[in-house]
Amino acid sequence: MATESQPRAHKAGAFDIRLIIALLIGVYGVILTVMGIGFTSDEEIKKAAGVNINLWAGIGMLVVAALFVTWALVRPLVVPAETETGDTPAAAGE
Question: Is the pTM of this model over 0.85?
Answer without folding.
Answer: no
